[in-house]
Amino acid sequence: MFFELGLALAALHFGVPLGYYAVAKRWLRKDWGIKEDGGYRPKVSVIIPTYNEAEHIAQRLENVAQSYPRDKLEVVVIDGASTDGTAEIAEKWAEKAGVDVKVVREERREGKAKSLNRALGLATGEVVVIADADALWAPDALRRAVAKLADPSVGAVSCVKRPIGGPGIEEGYRGFYNALRVAESKAWSTPIFHGELAAFKREALEAVGGFPTDIGADDSHAATLIALRGLRAIVADDVLCMETVPEEGYHAWRIRRAQHLIQHFAKAVRLLRKAPRPFRVVLAAEAYLHLVNPWLLLTAVALLLASAFMGNILATAFLGTGALMLLYKPYRTWIVAQIYLVAASVRNLRTKEIVWNKQIKRGRRRC
Ligand code: GDD
Ligand code: MN
Prior knowledge:
The protein is an alpha/beta fold. It contains 13 helices and eight strands. Guanosine-5'-diphosphate-alpha-D-mannose is lined by residues 49-51, 53, 78-80, 109, 111-112, 115, 132-134, 194-196, 216-219, 253, 257, 260, 355, 358.
């Protein structure tokens, strides 16, 4: 009995995502159905939220400044009371930059989303772009994102990500999830955005009330609300960001991000009925994959273990095969992601991590 149930849950755990990826592969071959305009040059406000980014901020400002015509660019650095001199470095950079840069210092650190909303109130651009300080954009990333916003059906655009540093597993994970985000975006919209580059039509962002401050994944949630209101929110395959991956505290980093996505989906799934049809499938599938599916694996393993202890040879064989398959990297990457999601759900009961510990990124260790 344990054995049959365990097997059925395991089949469901692996079967549903495999089915979804088969569908996603078909989406990947679709046309975008978007009319880009490479000459569209609205005023852009780039918001850089910072907390102790002294190591990255100057290079990041340089990177942003080179990404768009300077007379159409406004940069707002919103600093959450850094203690490492981030704001001073940004101010010094602003003095000689020849770019419109505002540096706003908050008295207390209150979390990224609150800062973003404060900065949104100061930003004057038609397009508002979030740019995490510890990431970099490919030189044409912003222009390509803006070109897509020229289409009236598009409300928000985010990037695909290439990891800098971190363990090998991060790369496998990234490649796979980048493809999935793009597939969902081609279908219509994706519910997962990236703070490394998240570009919004200002009007669309204001219509959903800016960034939510009660959950962690502010960027993904705002994008999803925009998609629920009928404009597309897409991750584009020609908009590329590089993000630094922590080498110490990698697990804690992955768990915190998983916590934020779980918070986002738990909230977004309640609006599922409002989703435009093609987005409903995507949102339902992603909510299921983040909220439910990891628990099926855990339960299946527990049932099979119980069955194996009771002498069921087949259960032992299944568990043994499952363990052996961990040598196969994509499978291992998947299993690890499930463990992060389960750990994150449990952790969410204790803390939402709205204000999180800073992870040590590559390079910082040498200081
Ligand atoms: N002003 C302000 N206040 N900025 C902050 C705060 C804060 O309390 N906390 C973090 N930041 C800044 C960081 O300095 C960085 O520029 C950006 O917000 C993202 O923080 P990271 O610490 O680099 O987070 P991450 O890359 O792991 O987080 C990713 O996932 C989050 C959701 O889980 C990013 O994509 C985030 O944008 C996203 O919200
Ligand atoms: Mn980051």
